[in-house]
Design brief:
The chain has a domain at about 215-265. The chain contains seven helices and twelve strands. It has helices at about 5-20, 25-60, 65-110, 115-135, 160-165, 215-230, 240-260, and strands at about 140-145, 155, 175-180, 180-190, 195-200, 210-215, 265-275, 290-295, 330-335, 345-355, 365-370, 380. Helix 3 packs antiparallel against helix 4 and helix 6 runs antiparallel to helix 7. The termini are far apart.
Length: about 400
């Protein structure tokens, strides 16, 4: 009788233990390389599937006119998607010009207003860094998005090849991904031709943010209204008459005039945001969770404030007005404290503030991303990573 040996099982167990003990960076690298190789094949598969479906429809269709109409609708949809991408690119370019004008205005205020000189200088420096990054940003097209990780990641058609062509390291790990001034996510893997972006709706991406109230909050709404006006200008079919269209446009102009009053800017509660990482089939709309929002420690934007009353801590003057640390509608912007995102990018709007319980030291909130079309992204802009140096390549 042949003697049974356990040596193969021993080596198998050792092999499995070795795999489990691999560092996370090595595992992520292998996974990313595998996915980046499969992504183009998936697109190719979808291409053949759609073509085969169209071919079958053309063979089975008994009504050539109906098939022709369906083909026209499909072509119009594809053209519309391309035009939307061009529009986003042009809007991004125009917004840079607006940012430059704003930077000049802030610099002038810093030179004239002695009492608020430090405040305006900080705003001007923040805007300068954003403008510099935007000028170096690279446009990227979304090429692949898995339904099972819809709110977590997507793939774009840029990579190390683009860095070689530009002789600059723009596409790198932790490169911020934006749409306008709105934060979309961050690059987490860079291949030669493709890169993966982790979205802000992923639970693993936690940007440091701060509540902003005042003129910047109003300017955000002004930009949305202006964009709506531009889109509706040639859409007469949406109105019953020219008079209805004129009345609606006048209402938008009136709203814009109310938002351009030059309110004082206030930087208040600081905290962190994270997403839910839900698949597309379970997604119930874009939503972010916020934790740790307080103003317990003074900083360059002002003194510390009480969590519940909003009063300045240590200030005995009862005539000093208190300021709520959070309000529904506050604009949440990046602080730069996470070392990944530059300061001043728009992230979300506060939509719910949870009540404080006894012993709580911070607020929890719910917020809506300012990049409202995350489910339909087609074109994004990738900025160079914060603090990148050539020797780090």
């Amino acid at each position: 009788m042949k003697k049974q040996t356990y040596i193969p099982y021993f080596f198998l167990i050792c092999f499995l233990l070795a795999i489990l003990s691999l560092p996370r960076s090595t595992v992520d690298g292998c996974r990313n390389i595998a996915i980046s190789s499969i992504a183009p094949l998936s697109n190719l598969k979808n291409f053949f599937v759609h073509n085969k479906r169209d071919l079958n429809n053309s063979n089975l269709s008994s009504n050539p006119e109906q098939f022709s109409m369906e083909k026209i609708i499909l072509e119009n949809t594809m053209l519309k998607n391309q035009l939307n991408g061009v529009y986003e690119w042009l809007f991004f370019e125009n917004r840079i010009d607006d940012q430059i004008d704003k930077y000049k205005t802030l610099s002038e205020h810093a030179a004239k207003d002695f009492l608020l000189k430090d405040f305006f200088q900080r705003r001007a420096e923040q805007l300068k860094e954003i403008i510099k990054s935007e000028y170096e940003a690279i446009p990227a097209k979304v090429i692949f998005r898995d339904a099972s990780s819809w709110s977590s990641s997507l793939w774009v058609n840029v990579g190390e090849k683009n860095n070689e062509e530009l002789s600059r390291q723009i596409i790198a790990k932790n490169s911020p991904v934006v749409l306008g001034q709105n934060l979309v996510g961050v690059v987490e893997f860079v291949g030669y031709k493709y890169s993966r972006v982790r979205l802000i709706t992923d639970a693993g991406l936690i940007p440091s943010v701060r509540a902003l109230r005042g003129s910047s909050q109003d300017n955000y709404l002004v930009n949305i209204i202006q964009s709506l006006k531009d889109h509706l200008h040639y859409r007469n079919n949406l109105f019953d008459s020219d008079e209805d269209k004129e009345n609606f446009m006048n209402s938008l102009l009136l709203m814009m005039s109310k938002l351009t009053g030059g309110k004082e800017e206030k930087y208040l509660a600081k905290g962190e945001l994270y997403g839910s990482s839900e698949p597309f089939c379970r997604s119930k709309g874009l939503s972010l969770k916020g934790v740790g929002f307080n103003y317990d420690y003074p900083d360059e934007e002002g003194p510390a404030r009480d969590l519940r009353t909003g009063k300045i801590i240590g200030e005995s003057n009862i005539n000093i007005k208190s300021e709520a640390l959070l309000e529904i509608g506050d604009l949440l912007v990046t602080t730069g404290m996470d070392g990944v995102f530059p300061c001043g990018l728009h992230v979300a709007i506060v939509k719910k503030i949870c009540d404080l319980n006894n012993g709580d030291y911070a607020y929890e909130i719910e917020a809506t991303p300012t990049a409202t079309n995350l489910n339909g992204l087609e074109i994004v802009m990738i900025m160079p990573p914060v603090g990148f140096e050539n020797q780090d390549k």
